[in-house]
Design a protein that fits this description.
Elements lengths: L5 E6 L3 H16 L3 E3 L7 E6 L4 H17 L3 E5 L5 H7 L5 E2 L5 H11 L23 E5 L1 E2 L10 H5 L3 E2 L2 H13 L4 E5 L14 E4 L2 E4 L2 H8 L5 E4 L12 H5 L6 E3 L7 H7 L8 H11 L4 E8 L6 H14 L3 E6 L17 H24 L5 E10 L2 E6 L10 E4 L9 E9 L4 E5 L1
Parallel strand pairs: 1-2, 1-3, 3-4, 4-5, 6-9, 9-12, 13-14, 14-15, 18-20
Antiparallel strand pairs: 7-8, 10-11, 16-17, 16-19, 17-18, 19-20
Helix pairs in contact: 1-4, 11-12
């Protein structure tokens, strides 16, 4: 039996890092490597790290240490790779350290330390490449980096400024995924609505027509694939308004993930948030007038340096007025290298946690009320899992891993990836229950 070099792989961090992992694995498989789910069967291990917040850094360093202890030969990549000195101070024996989205450099390092033995009969890949998500949905990364300099974030120092992928490349990948049976594309980047700004919205040919490298044009073209298309990490620039009619027409999912982060103008200014001067409540009202079924998801930070009780109350008032469907919240955590660390008037940790609890309780009541309004409706859902009790699915309002689920009792005959019609009959603060129609 011919020996095949084997690479173990650990992928940490956000969906954008997951896409990097998929690209590395696809190239390694193309080169003839086998991918192992265990340390023991691997000739070396690649760890794709996260370095955004302290907890993620600690997890990444621990994962590197575990890989070294279990295997001994480790290559490190990802966001934490921008801090090579810190990695080598803790783990000097790693073979190589690269930064974020360094796909070619990682593959070259694997080849250096573990030369491939290419066998065209065992190295054949599906056209969509290696995916780390279930077969019925996939993340579609459209750009790298970010032009903003939010004071709580160090992503630009790790991933650089905005670099948009050519729109025809993105659409070719999306079409391959759709042809391979993917039912839902989750569009991700650091700043999705800034797509194409760096290349001056350069037009490219796609299916015999010219498509600009622009947020609207991309959304319109993806809407022609006949599958669910969900937009994440969208900043509320004015041109986002143009995409709402596509949602109302059913071209893409009526779903926007917009990280508002706060509502108080002074705090937003301290955060250096883009579009901070926009009247977001008016924008939300206008979007709902065009597309009443739109689902709005957002994330917020409480306890940012300088946040007063009045500022926090203003944030709660914003939630009451905005009536957002899905909301995540974090207590501010200092990130090494972030400009916000130097701001005065730090909020005590106990007060941060108290505000976080109040925020979540406030929003849960809003979420529960909005879900109750959907009880009795018939909606299309996408099946994610089939268990003993029935099927676990998601509606158009639910992104995987971060939003709610729809439970269908007794529907054990369904298959993962099925679209089915469900009458919704019960809801709590996050999830819904229903029966097949």
């Amino acid at each position: 039996m011919t020996y095949t070099p084997t690479v173990g792989f650990i992928s940490l961090g956000c969906p954008k890092a997951l896409v990097d992992s998929e690209r590395i694995l696809t190239q390694l498989r193309t080169d003839g490597y086998t991918i192992s789910p265990t340390y023991q069967n691997a000739d070396l291990v690649v760890v794709n790290t996260c370095g955004f917040i302290d907890a993620a850094v600690a997890e990444s360093l621990d994962s590197i240490g575990e890989a070294l202890a279990e295997n001994g030969r480790v290559i490190v990549t990802g966001c934490l790779g921008a801090r090579e000195d810190e990695i080598r101070a803790r783990h000097p024996q790693v073979l190589k350290v690269t930064g974020a989205h360094a796909i070619d450099e990682v593959v070259a390092s694997v080849r250096e330390h573990l030369p491939p033995r290419h066998d065209p009969f065992t190295s054949l890949l599906p056209p969509q490449g290696v995916k780390l998500t279930p077969s019925h949905y996939a993340y579609l990364k459209i750009s790298e980096g970010c032009n903003h300099r939010c004071t709580f974030c160090i992503i630009p120092s790790m991933r650089g400024d905005l670099v948009s992928r050519p729109v025809d490349d993105v659409l070719v990948e999306a079409e391959r995924l759709a042809q391979a049976g993917v039912k839902e594309l989750l569009v991700v980047s650091q700043d999705t609505s800034a797509y194409g700004l760096d290349v001056k919205y350069q037009p490219r040919d796609w299916r015999g027509r010219s498509v600009q490298t622009r947020f609207y044009d991309l959304a319109e073209a993806l809407g022609d694939l006949g599958i669910w298309v969900r937009m994440h990490y969208v900043y509320p620039y004015p041109h986002v308004d143009d995409v709402i009619p596509l949602m109302a027409a059913g071209k893409i999912l009526p779903y926007l993930d917009i990280p508002f982060q706060h509502a108080n103008p002074r705090i937003l200014k301290l955060m250096k948030r883009p579009a901070a001067s926009q009247n977001n409540l008016e924008r939300i009202k206008a979007w709902r007038s065009v597309c009443p079924d739109i689902t709005l998801r957002s994330t917020f930070i409480v306890g940012f340096p300088g946040e007063t009780e009045q500022d926090f109350t203003e944030l709660l008032d914003f939630l009451s007025e905005a009536q957002l469907d899905r909301v995540g919240c974090f207590a501010y955590s200092p990130v090494r290298g972030a400009a916000a660390n130097d701001l005065p008037d730090a909020v005590p940790e106990a007060l941060k946690q108290e505000r976080l609890a109040r925020f979540m309780a406030h929003q849960e009541a809003i979420s529960a009320q909005r879900l109750q309004q959907r009880v009795g409706r018939i909606e299309t859902v996408l099946v994610d899992e089939v268990v003993e009790e029935g099927a676990v699915a998601r509606s158009r309002a639910d992104a995987p891993d971060i939003d709610g689920q729809v439970f269908i009792d007794g529907a054990t005959h369904l298959k993962v990836g099925d679209f089915v019609q469900v009458e919704l009959e019960e809801a709590d603060e996050h999830d819904m229950w229903g029966h097949l129609v």
